[in-house]
Amino acid sequence: MATKAKVSKLLLRNVPLFSMLPEDQLAALTTVLGRKSFARGETVIAAGDATNSLYIVISGRLKAIIGDKTGREVILTILGPGEYFGEMVPIEDSTRSASVIVLESCELLILSKHDFRKCLSDNFEMAMTMLRCAVQRLREADRKIGRLALMDVYGRVAALLLDMSETIDGRHVITQKIVKTDMASMIGASREMVTRVMKDLQAGGFIEVRGDSIYLRDNIASIE
Q: What are the φ and ψ backbone dihedral angles of 8, each rounded to 5 degrees?
């Protein structure tokens, strides 16, 4: 169960979803938000669970997956600080369609369906932010489907690397740890194939590995 310890307004102000809220609504949220830590490998929600809360990531990383009875899984997305899941809570009462599992120990804020609905009804801009997020995620899903249908494995790996990168000093860099098994689950390929493609990209001068970071060269976009 989430701890009902009071959450600071400063913490909430740094969460993109809540950053636009006026002071009175922010203060009200600090009294109803729960806070809970999860260890690596824990399941936060499972496919088929009741839809009853919104979760906001404070720290750590998680993966949202769908799987079958044989144990095979597809990673829908990787979630990090500032991101959230369960945003369909206010508009549907169906069960969860995907599971969310902890990749790195994390801390989450948890907002009940009742309090989330009230927050949205009291703040138009927050409701619009949620709609924009839903549209963005639908577009991302369409893009991923297109990749699976139209790109070879090299193109899918290159596109995924670009998605995972951040711009540092004008260069695309991946600073987070990459697990090739997870990459394979995200692009519909085997781990062995992903390992081979990564080696080929490095040998071909498309990526450069420096310690725990991966630097992407500009020419990697030509592979997509």
A: -75, 150
Per the structure block, which two tokens stand in for 126? 């927050």
- CA dist., res. 194 & res. 134, Å (int): 30
Half-sphere exposure of 145 (CA within 13 A, CB side): 6
Please give the model's pTM, rounded to 2 decimal places: 0.73
Write the DSSP assignment of 148-180 as a string of letters: HHH--HHHHHHHHHHHH-EEETTEEEE-S---H
The span from the CA of 155 to the CA of 161, in Å, is: 10
pLDDT tens per residue, range 2-34: 555 568 888 888 888 888 788 888 888 888 898
| Strand 43-45 versus strand 53-67 pairing type | unpaired
- φ/ψ of 76, rounded to 5, equals -80, -40
Contacts of 129 (CB under 8 A, 6+ apart): 16, 17, 20
**The pair of three-digit structure tokens given for residue 180, joined into one six-digit string:** 């090739």
Q: Which of 63, 169, 51 is nearest to 113 (CA)?
A: 51
DSSP-derived secondary structure letter, 3: B
